[in-house]
Amino acid sequence: MPQAKIDAGDEIAVEACPVREVLDRVAGKWSILIIVAAARGPVRFTELERSIEGISRRMLTLTLRHLERDGLLKRTVYATVPPRVDYELTDIARELHQSLLSLTDWAERHRAAISAARVAYDAERLAAAG
User: Fold this and answer.
1) Which ranges in 1-130 belong to alpha helices (H)?
2) What domain of life (predicted)?
3) Overall pTM > 0.85
4) What angle do CA 47, 48, 49 make, to 5 degrees?
């Protein structure tokens, strides 16, 4: 079977797609909150459910599965009655957590400047419409 010719644009699209997929997954609201909550050490499903305001059981379950599939969470099942399940960050998720802390620190340092820029922008638009 002849191989299809791939031009430079197609190569970039093929290489960029997995990166976009990873960023979409880890940048999701629930993923970030789960990673932050699990950074303190092994955590149980019910602890996550209580600590993450607004997440449904179904969304928590789906997000945990995705994070486990992506190698960001390790799920450990203990043979007890009832079964006990713990979730723990993997090494790559701990590295991601450090990046999230840097981003949070950046946001804290610059929130006043961002707020002032928004006020100035809105005032300028209002004056122009006025």
Assistant:
1) 8-26, 29-38, 45-51, 57-69, 91-129
2) Bacteria
3) no
4) 90
Q: Give dist(CA 64, CA 85) in Å, integer.
A: 12
- Per-residue pLDDT of 40-92, as tens digits, reads 999 999 999 999 999 999 999 999 999 999 999 999 999 999 889 999 999 99
CA max distance for the chain: 69
Q: Return the CATH number of 8-129, one of 2.40.160.20, 1.10.10.10, 2.120.10.30, 3.40.50.300.
A: 1.10.10.10
On the 0-12 / 13-18 / 19+ scale of CB atoms within 10 A, 90 is: middle
**Euclidean distance between CA atoms 12 and 10, whole angstroms:** 5
